[in-house]
Amino acid sequence: MKKPISNIAISKIFLVLAIFFAGIAGYAYFAFMPLYLDNIGFSDADILVIMLFMGLGIALSSSYFGKLSDRIGKRKIFFVFGISIQVLVFFLIPLNNHIFYFCTLNLIRGLALGMRMPPSNALYADLVELSNSKDESKGDTSGSEISGTQLSFLSATKSTGWAIGVLTSGWIVDVFGIESLIIFLVIITGISLMLSLPVKDIQLKDHIQIKNEEIEEDKNLEMGENSSPKIEMDGKKSVKPKVKPLLFVSIFFRHFALIPILQILSILLTDAMVPDDLIGIIIAINPISQIIAMIVVGRIIDNPKITEKIILAIGYGLSSIVLMAYFGGVVTEMIGFFVVAQICLGTAWGFIFTGANKYIVNRAHKDRAQYLGKFTFTLQFAKILAYIGFGFFLWRIEGIIPQMFLPYLAIIPLIGIILVYWL
Asked: DSSP readout, 266-312?
């Protein structure tokens, strides 16, 4: 039994490292690609349209490739192929300056992101669950359910990559110029690709067989007629509740309210007279807070008295506080409000992401990549609709400024608190 367990551990390490470096490149792109586009002459409206195509690509592909990954029982191939496409896209960026060219590249990158993210997250869950199953067969009674602590490890790794990505790329851009961003993206994404190659795919049929053997053994040894029901992995029955659509609806409202403001956060900070050298630091508070929140929430959610519903509700409440704190910073021009907002923002996402992921991976076994893809789709769909609605008011109604929306947007995440009651 030693060899397969060792292979699982090695695969987890390489997968987490690959996702870590992908996160570094991803957040560097998110933070500084608008500046790169501005530097080569695109207007703010052009940049918004270009970046919108990336969200469109993710929305179009994430649910499809998640479902396809579940159907064929393969995860790694989608991660490797998606990362490879991203390396190619970064190579192609400097070759043309036409807006249609950048929209196309961003659409392709979005499709690649949707291809790699749900399967890679599902692969990590598969590896953890299989490792737990083998530990259980050796006498560990903690069970094969994926714990919040185990999920938070991957989430904290992603957030660490985001923090390092924005800080490192910011330093590189400051020292070597905005053109150096492309070289940085190619190198970091290439490292992610190389690290993904040693990862071993989980054969889902073998995984299901292990689960069925455990169920049969439990029945023979101790279960009896009055024991609690187990999950049947053959696809015929499942007594464990599935993922409810209300989860995605609640996340939609939260993301719809926040994303437009996050996209113009640097503008809000500038208007509030925050010094330029502090803007990057304030923005970086978000991923740093996420790291802490992911670790803490991962431990809290493993308490049997703390359900995913409670964790999600706290996250939605904090999201509302974020928008009110931004409004306070805009009105008073006090940096402290923005600092509080960023801390709450990172903490809120730590609660929401951990709660939602644990809810999904422990309710969807054979189709968890599909549901993780729906989760990603919801985020991008909310972003697209928010951009369209936000842009309509800004461009069509004279005298409207983004700051005017903040008190009203703060109400929207509270809808999530009501919806999660029925999860």
From this structure: HHHHHHTT--HHHHHHHHHHHHHHHHHHHHHHHHHTTSTTS-HHHHH
- 1-203 folds as Growth Hormone; Chain: A; (1.20.1250)
Q: Over the stretch 315-371, which tens digit does the pLDDT of each residue have?
A: 999 999 999 999 999 888 899 999 999 999 999 999 999 899 889 988 877 788 889
Nearest-angstrom CA–CA distance, 322 and 258: 9
Q: Over the range 25-47, which residues count as b (16 or more CB within 10 Å of their CB) and which as e?
A: bbbbbbbbbbebbeeeebeeeeb
Q: How far is CA 299 from CA 7, 12, 147, in A?
A: 26, 20, 8
- The stretches in the chain having pLDDT less than 70 are 1-6, 134-145, 203-241, 276-277, 391, 393-402
For 93-119, how does the pLDDT look when each residue is reduced to its tens digit (9 = 90+)? 999 999 999 999 999 999 999 999 999
Instruction: Please state the separation of Cα 254 from the chain's center in Å.
Output: 14
| Superfamily the domain 239-423 falls into | MFS general substrate transporter like domains (1.20.1250.20)
Length of the chain measured in residues: 423
Extract the tokens encoding 416: 């999530």
- H helices, E strands: number in the chain: 15, 0
Question: CA-to-CA distance for 398 and 80, rounded, in angstroms?
Answer: 47
Give one word for 380, left, alpha or beta, with left for phi > 0 and alpha for psi -120 to 50.
Answer: alpha
**Secondary structure class of 366 (helix, strand, coil):** coil
CA 193/CA 82 separation, integer angstroms: 9
Q: Tell me the average pLDDT of the chain.
A: 82
Residue 10 is which amino acid?
I
Please, are residues 382 and 412 in contact by the beta-carbon 8 Å criterion?
A: no
DSSP-derived secondary structure letter, 219? I
- Do the beta carbons of residue 345 and residue 45 sit within 8 Å? no
Q: Tokens at residue 368, please?
A: 């968890």
- CATH 1.20.1250.20 in the chain is located at 1-203, 239-423
Given this model, what pLDDT does residue 294 score? 86
The answer to whether 335 and 278 are in contact (CB under 8 A) is yes
Residue type at 362 in one-letter notation: N
HSE of 206 in the Cβ direction (CA atoms, 13 Å)?
Answer: 10
Q: Taking a C-beta distance cutoff of 8 angstroms, is the pair 388, 219 a contact?
A: no
Nearest Cα to 123, choosing from 83, 81, 160, 79? 79
